[in-house]
Amino acid sequence: MTFIGTFSGGAHSCIGQHFALTESICILAQIAQKYEICIPEELKGKSFDERKRIMLTWSPGVTTTPTYGMVVLRPQT
Q: For residue 13, what are the domain limits?
């Protein structure tokens, strides 16, 4: 997984790129360990293809911050 637009590439690439990507994977792993990742209630009656279309319509911003991301996190029991 590479974010060329965010970190640039080649000889002048960001020196923190590998650290940032590794750290984000670790953060996502911790979230996945502690929470059950569910779809929002308003999507439960829709078909898989419709859910997929709606959930993948988020768009990254300048700092790759997703907007309109739809997910529900429920603590693991």
A: 4-75
Tokens representing 38?
A: 């569910």
- Measuring CA to CA, which residue among 19, 17, 15, 16 is closest to residue 4? 17
Identify whether the C-beta of residue 58 lies closer than 8 Å to the C-beta of residue 67: yes
| Phi, psi torsion values for 67, nearest 5 degrees | -120, 150
Q: Residue 11 pLDDT more than 80?
A: no
Count up the domains in the chain and report the number: 1
**Mind listing the pLDDT tens digit for each residue in 29-54?**
999 999 988 888 888 899 999 998 88
Give residue 39's identity as a one-letter amino acid code.
I
